[in-house]
């Protein structure tokens, strides 16, 4: 029969000295000169304890848990805010889908390619009749410029 103080027994089980004293007053625990028999008190506690309730966490563990929960909530709120901001920008037309941009760029590049590939067909007969290299250069440059200017007019 190991006798220990009420406060020490209460600390071991994670509750206050006042609760241990209350259990003694109710007759759940028996005290001898203000001390309790540890084995008898543990058995009495097990008999009355509601197993559906979990033990209280120490203040340090609960503080760490609270901090972790707070950080998680803050992160979730930040992400939710970013998502709402992105949706608003999509609705007003400031943001568009990446696939749409890729498709538009592909289509524009195809038009440029087709225009450049059509230049020889348009100027072949004209160049065949010219013997001067500088005149050929001038005609080719002019045709390329015309083709690119036509594309830029189509954009606006």
Brief description of this entry?
The protein is mostly helical. Helix content is about 75%, strand content about 5%. The chain has helices at about 5-15, 15-25, 40-50, 60-90, 100-130, 135-155; strands at about 5, 30, 35.
Question: Can you walk through the features of this model?
Answer:
With 156 residues, the protein is mainly α. The protein has helices at residues 6-13, 17-26, 38-48, 59-92, 98-128, 133-155; strands at 3-5, 31-32, 35-37. The protein has three domains: 3-48, no CATH class; 57-95; 98-155. The protein has a three-stranded antiparallel β-sheet with strand order 1-3-2. Strand 2 (31-32) and strand 3 (35-37) form a beta hairpin. The termini are far apart.
Spell out the helices and strands N to C. Answer: EHHEEHHHH
The structural domain count equals: 3
Strand segment count: 3
Mean pLDDT: 85
Main sheet, how many strands, which sense, barrel? 3 strands, antiparallel
Q: For the largest beta sheet, what order do the strands appear in spatially?
A: 1-3-2
How much helix, percentage-wise, in residues? over 70%
Q: Give the radius of gyration.
A: 43 Å
Annotation field: number of helices: 6
- Structural class by secondary-structure content: mainly alpha
Ends apart, CA distance between termini: 97 Å
Q: What ranges have pLDDT less than 50 throughout 5 or more consecutive residues?
A: none
Range of strand content: 5-15%
* Shape field: rod-shaped
């Amino acid at each position: 029969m190991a006798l220990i103080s009420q406060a020490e027994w209460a600390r071991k089980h994670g509750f206050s000295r006042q609760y241990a004293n209350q259990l003694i007053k109710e007759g759940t625990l028996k005290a001898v000169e203000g001390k309790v028999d540890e084995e008898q008190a543990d058995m009495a506690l097990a008999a009355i304890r509601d197993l559906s309730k979990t033990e209280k966490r120490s203040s340090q563990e609960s503080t760490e848990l609270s901090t972790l929960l707070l950080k998680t909530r803050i992160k979730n709120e930040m992400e939710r805010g970013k998502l709402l901001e992105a949706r608003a920008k999509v609705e007003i037309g400031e943001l568009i889908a990446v696939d749409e941009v890729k498709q538009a760029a592909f289509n524009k590049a195809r038009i440029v390619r087709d225009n450049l590939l059509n230049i020889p067909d348009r100027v072949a007969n004209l160049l065949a009749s010219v013997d001067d290299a500088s005149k050929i250069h001038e005609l080719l440059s002019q045709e390329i410029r015309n083709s690119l200017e036509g594309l830029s007019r189509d954009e606006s």
